[in-house]
Amino acid sequence: MSLSLLRRFARSMSTAAPSYPFSKLAVIPPAPATPPPAPLLKGKGLMAHLSDTLPSPDKLKLLKTYFSKRHPLRILPGSVLSVTMGHAPTQFTGVLLSVRRRGIDTSILLRNVVNRLGVEMQVFVASPHVKDIKILQRAGGGTGQGKVGKRMRRAKLFYLRDSPEKMSAISAGLRG
Amino acid sequence: MLRLWSLQHRLSPLQCRTIRTTAAARAAAAATKEAPVDSQWTANSVRTGLIARKRGMTAMWDDHGARYPVTVLQLENCQVTANVKTVRDDGSEYHAVQVAASDRPEKTTTKPMLGHFKKAGVPPKRVVKEFPVTPDAHVPVGTTLSAIHFVPGQYVDVIANSIGKGYQGVMKRWNFKGLRASHGVSVSHRSAGATGAHQDPGRVWPGKKMAGRMGGKRITTQNLAVVRVDSALDLVFVRGCVPGIDDAQVMVRDAKKKVTDAAQHNYAKGLFEKILPKGLDSLPFPAGTKELAKTLPPIIAAPTLRRSPFLPRE
């Protein structure tokens, strides 16, 4: 049976989208509406384009607002977050120590002291297991007074691993 | 399950590229016709590869929510420039498809290469490579290859020059343990130590592992799974890492171990279910071209066939 005959047969079987004769189990995601601009075909801005198109719309919204570098609503390190996940532990609350920004591979590091044991968890924001991220207390951007927590003068708060008193200060601010 | 390749008339073993032909077989080969225009992939065929550029890495999540790293490879006007057929002294044949990629300005291309590309009817290219194939897998000269050539779910070998590390010591280059940090070791904490025995042999063996230039060599990473193919942007997403820096030219071909050899062995044994990796019915043959890509969906992804790693095994 020639390939052209097979193509005609396959097309007659399918209703709307063209079918894929080389693998029955292949998944066919929806195609983008507009054709790609010319610079992308040369690789210019390709990885940034993939960062914008690969995640689902709700994950992309998360990445572009809460975990972006300059958005006014971005979550600053020192904030207290609570993440709900599909796998164990289903709920994890902790201080945001760092945001590792890599487009779709963006991840956050949360630290908490559970039963007198320091526990850190790296959560990949675009993972399908991550159901919800709740902000319990934001770290202040400007003065850090009033309702928001203290402003941290670092992007990565790894020093908190060695100072439990500063960790308790953040949790005290949360309870108060 | 429809076996597209088994419906085709089976090619005789003498068309396999590794078998040397006898005089009688040579006569038989001359008598057989050329491959038909609309040919099918068979378990004994070896098809051409492509030249792509490594654009970078990212991460994807499968249906179970397990994260895996992917490398993005992009085809940059990859076209066929020649079909090579060489008859060796003993009469056996070497067949190959020469592929070129990445257009370059005419003024920077040498006159001999300009003539070569003009003969093929393609714009001048930066890189020209050749892929050994079986005689039925020749592709018309001037065909533009597409990412649709690879089927999500199959395995590929990726060949590129590794990142050059310069002159490196023996600990980085050969994973030597070095010497102690203290306890009297003087000035040789990262050295190789002894380089041989005593008077017998009284020399250093050739090939002794020593410090020297590391990296910048041709490296093949085998059996990388193709997870996604985008024919609009000509992207092939492969699972895992690929040698070389971003924007490096890489050669991508069907995995010798998991696709080509597995197909030949399982076909010879009669295990028709195992000829292609799970989920695959056939491969675009002789090659996945831009014309074929127009008839197929623009984005195709591989299914998740493994069990969920988040659920305990029984």
UniProtKB/TrEMBL annotation, chain A:
<dbReference type="InterPro" id="IPR008991">
    <property type="entry name" value="Translation_prot_SH3-like_sf"/>
</dbReference>
<dbReference type="GO" id="GO:0005762">
    <property type="term" value="C:mitochondrial large ribosomal subunit"/>
</dbReference>
<keyword id="KW-0687">Ribonucleoprotein</keyword>
<protein>
    <recommendedName>
        <fullName>Ribosomal protein L19</fullName>
    </recommendedName>
</protein>
<dbReference type="GO" id="GO:0006412">
    <property type="term" value="P:translation"/>
</dbReference>
<dbReference type="GO" id="GO:0003735">
    <property type="term" value="F:structural constituent of ribosome"/>
</dbReference>
<dbReference type="InterPro" id="IPR001857">
    <property type="entry name" value="Ribosomal_bL19"/>
</dbReference>
<comment type="similarity">
    <text>Belongs to the bacterial ribosomal protein bL19 family.</text>
</comment>
<keyword id="KW-0689">Ribosomal protein</keyword>
<dbReference type="InterPro" id="IPR038657">
    <property type="entry name" value="Ribosomal_bL19_sf"/>
</dbReference>
<dbReference type="Pfam" id="PF01245">
    <property type="entry name" value="Ribosomal_L19"/>
</dbReference>
Automatic annotation (TrEMBL), chain B:
<dbReference type="GO" id="GO:0005762">
    <property type="term" value="C:mitochondrial large ribosomal subunit"/>
</dbReference>
<keyword id="KW-0687">Ribonucleoprotein</keyword>
<feature type="region of interest" description="Disordered">
    <location>
        <begin position="190"/>
        <end position="214"/>
    </location>
</feature>
<keyword id="KW-0689">Ribosomal protein</keyword>
<dbReference type="Pfam" id="PF00297">
    <property type="entry name" value="Ribosomal_L3"/>
</dbReference>
<protein>
    <recommendedName>
        <fullName>Large ribosomal subunit protein uL3m</fullName>
    </recommendedName>
</protein>
<dbReference type="InterPro" id="IPR019926">
    <property type="entry name" value="Ribosomal_uL3_CS"/>
</dbReference>
<dbReference type="GO" id="GO:0006412">
    <property type="term" value="P:translation"/>
</dbReference>
<dbReference type="InterPro" id="IPR000597">
    <property type="entry name" value="Ribosomal_uL3"/>
</dbReference>
<comment type="similarity">
    <text>Belongs to the universal ribosomal protein uL3 family.</text>
</comment>
<keyword id="KW-0809">Transit peptide</keyword>
<dbReference type="InterPro" id="IPR019927">
    <property type="entry name" value="Ribosomal_uL3_bac/org-type"/>
</dbReference>
<dbReference type="GO" id="GO:0003735">
    <property type="term" value="F:structural constituent of ribosome"/>
</dbReference>
<dbReference type="InterPro" id="IPR009000">
    <property type="entry name" value="Transl_B-barrel_sf"/>
</dbReference>
<keyword id="KW-0496">Mitochondrion</keyword>
